[in-house]
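Design a sequence for this backbone.
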């Protein structure tokens, strides 16, 4: 059965309790919390276009007639069918969200915290079923799907527990000139946040915006990638299990036009994750209403290996950072710069580890297919350009591309002007380059339009920290890879073509808020400077005071 939401979109009927209808339930070991994914039963009520169409009625003037399929990238099987939300459907969702935002903000810090922690608990109990859906819709291994949900849960927990401390009212010093004033700073909700999510991490990445927006007191309208709408639907439905029929978190589905409609809809902010090219289009749409935006746009992240590094740990990190999730990680490793004294040993260990990995859709596979088919063309182009410019394939070659899978490809001696070095590849490939020292490694790592994340391996704490600070990136991990993503107190975001603004941490909470400054006069000042009754004598007293307080020369 397919039912309609208040705004006219058709979704599988949501049960009042128990598992999401997109997932088939199987009790095992006498535990009603244990479930197994059954592809043949999944989304049966939503996969047929005719079923969606039959839900349309003459009274429903906002329902989109067009639909699209979510497809398993490993085998091409249709997982579910979703409506394409147009301008009217998106605006209707935003209007509902605006009403819900007033209710949600009015709950206060403690009640919102209870709801968010309940949501966290719900996702934790049903992590297995959600991971199965992520695995089916993206192709990534089940364990990787579980890991990203674990990280999402950690971020929901942090946002819920720290929102009041970060955003709540607090007194600030008023200073000498305004000594008669009490000064208060607080952060208020923006209203409705539009979140446009990616397909590579369809739970962790959007939750990094959604959870912080909700914790700050906003409502959210979420547009997932067209490659992962089922995961987005399940995420939204899971929150609905907690808040009931309040439209605090809503779903709109479709392609780029739906995202543009959301940006133009009058939301109070857009949180976007995707390519720099798409970000520019979203920014253009946002500009119509001067809608602010936070953007995370991918990167060309580098890993640096110093002469004293633990080479086994560095090689393991490089391989994981480059090849996990088939290289489809915005903060993954795409370039490696190795100090020449350890270059050959390091390269051998990387090749040894990568050669053991195998892509596939079975449980034994180390990583899955390319979720977005067109990305394979980018991989082939980058590989061909690197070889044509004199680069060497030390593991894999063009024959490693076996659509929809790509076996590990390691390149060395690739010129810095090659597209494999300058452009985001987003596949299971990596370039390994020899450098004279760590200073040269930092210079080459910074010679890019991107600036999202980086990794440094060095036993010398001082040298490793100096390199980390010198790298032009939003985040840097030392002697680990992508470690910052697991620390919810740290901000996440980039510079340059990697975007602007921050999600996660206190910065992420403030990103979803507006600062409100309040002063309250405690007593009448003897020097009333903001009145037409102000005298020259009063102004002269102030000037003398400023000279005594600020006019002294400071020694260098």
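Sequence:
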């Amino acid at each position: 059965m397919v039912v309609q939401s208040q705004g006219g979109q058709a979704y599988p009927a949501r049960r009042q309790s128990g598992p999401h209808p997109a997932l088939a339930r199987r009790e095992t070991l006498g535990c009603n919390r244990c479930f197994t994914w059954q592809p043949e039963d999944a989304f049966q009520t939503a996969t047929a276009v005719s079923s969606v169409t039959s839900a349309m009625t003459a009274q429903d003037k906002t329902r989109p007639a067009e639909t699209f399929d979510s497809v398993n990238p490993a085998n091409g099987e249709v997982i579910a069918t979703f409506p394409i939300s147009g301008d009217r459907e998106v605006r209707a969702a935003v209007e509902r969200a605006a009403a819900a935002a007033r209710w949600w903000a009015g709950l206060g810090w403690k009640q919102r915290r209870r709801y968010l922690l309940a949501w966290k608990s719900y996702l934790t109990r049903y992590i297995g079923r959600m991971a199965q859906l992520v695995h089916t819709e993206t192709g990534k291994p089940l364990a990787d799907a579980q890991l990203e949900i674990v990280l999402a849960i950690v971020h929901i927990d942090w946002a819920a527990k720290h929102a009041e401390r970060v955003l709540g009212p607090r007194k600030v010093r008023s200073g000498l000139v305004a000594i008669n004033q009490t000064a208060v700073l607080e952060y208020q909700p923006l209203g409705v946040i539009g979140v446009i999510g990616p397909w590579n991490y369809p739970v962790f990445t959007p939750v990094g915006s959604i959870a912080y927006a909700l914790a700050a007191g906003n409502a959210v309208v979420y547009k997932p990638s067209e490659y992962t709408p089922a995961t987005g639907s399940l995420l939204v439905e899971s929150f609905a299990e907690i808040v009931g029929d309040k439209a605090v978190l809503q779903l709109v589905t479709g392609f780029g036009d739906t995202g543009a409609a959301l940006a133009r809809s009058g939301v109070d902010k857009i949180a976007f994750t995707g390519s720099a090219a798409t970000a520019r289009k979203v920014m253009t749409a946002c500009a119509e209403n001067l809608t602010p935006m936070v953007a995370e746009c991918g990167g060309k992240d580098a890993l640096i290996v110093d002469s004293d590094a633990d080479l086994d740990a560095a090689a393991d990190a490089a391989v994981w950072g480059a090849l996990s999730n088939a290289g489809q990680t915005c903060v993954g490793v795409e370039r490696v710069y190795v100090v020449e004294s350890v270059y050959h040993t390091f390269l051998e260990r990387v090749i040894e580890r990568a050669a053991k990995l195998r892509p596939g859709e079975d449980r034994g596979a180390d990583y899955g297919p390319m979720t977005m088919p067109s990305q394979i063309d980018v991989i082939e182009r980058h590989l061909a350009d690197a070889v044509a410019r004199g680069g060497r394939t030390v593991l894999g070659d063009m024959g490693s591309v076996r659509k929809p899978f790509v076996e590990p490809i390691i390149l060395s001696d690739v010129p810095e002007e090659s597209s494999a070095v300058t452009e985001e590849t987003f596949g299971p490939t990596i370039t390994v380059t020899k450098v004279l020292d760590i200073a040269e490694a930092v210079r080459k790592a910074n010679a890019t339009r991107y600036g999202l994340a980086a990794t440094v391996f060095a036993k010398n704490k001082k040298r490793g920290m100096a390199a980390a600070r010198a790298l032009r990136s939003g985040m840097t991990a030392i002697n680990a890879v992508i470690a910052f993503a697991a620390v919810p107190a740290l901000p996440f975001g980039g510079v340059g073509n990697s975007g602007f603004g921050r999600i996660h941490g206190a910065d992420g909470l403030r990103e979803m808020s507006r600062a409100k400054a309040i002063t309250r006069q405690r007593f009448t000042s003897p020097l009333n400077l903001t009145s037409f009754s102000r005298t020259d004598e009063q102004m002269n007293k102030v000037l003398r005071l400023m000279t005594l307080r600020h006019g002294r020369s400071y020694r260098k």
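Confidence is low (pLDDT under 50) at residues 1-62.
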